[in-house]
Amino acid sequence: MKVWPVQHAKARFAELMDTCLERGPQLVTRRGQQAAVLVPMRQRQRLAQAAKPTLKDLLISDIARTELQIPSHDKRRPRAAHLIA
């Protein structure tokens, strides 16, 4: 991954984008500190899809089970049983 100081990235943005599309993510720095990454759209979409939890992850997660609010059952009125003939 090539490193681009923000001044160069601004002045040569078309080159930055072309390099990103041809070679992958490009790092932009500000005052020597990592500030941003330019990523091709296809790679960003793959990353976003991979970040979504699967149904299996949700079912085995403690967080998923504790956040489910189940209303209490009203014991004063029993439910009617329906028979299928």
Q: What do you see in this structure?
A:
- The protein is of the alpha+beta class.
- The protein has a single domain (3-66), classed as YefM-like domain (YefM-like fold), CATH 3.40.1620.10.
- Helices cover 46% and strands 16% of the residues.
- It has five helices and three strands.
- The chain has a three-stranded mixed β-sheet.
- A hairpin with a 2-residue loop joins strand 2 and strand 3 (33-38).
- The chain is rod-shaped.
- The protein starts with a strand and ends in a 19-residue tail after the last helix.
- The relative contact order is 0.11.
- Oligomeric state, counting identical vs distinct chains: single chain
Mean pLDDT across the residues is 84
State the strand order across the main sheet.
1-2-3
Please name the CATH architecture. Answer: 3-Layer(aba) Sandwich
What's the CATH H-level superfamily name?
A: YefM-like domain
Rounded to the nearest angstrom, the distance between the terminal CA atoms is 70 Å
Level-1 CATH class name: Alpha Beta
| CA-based gyration radius | 26 Å
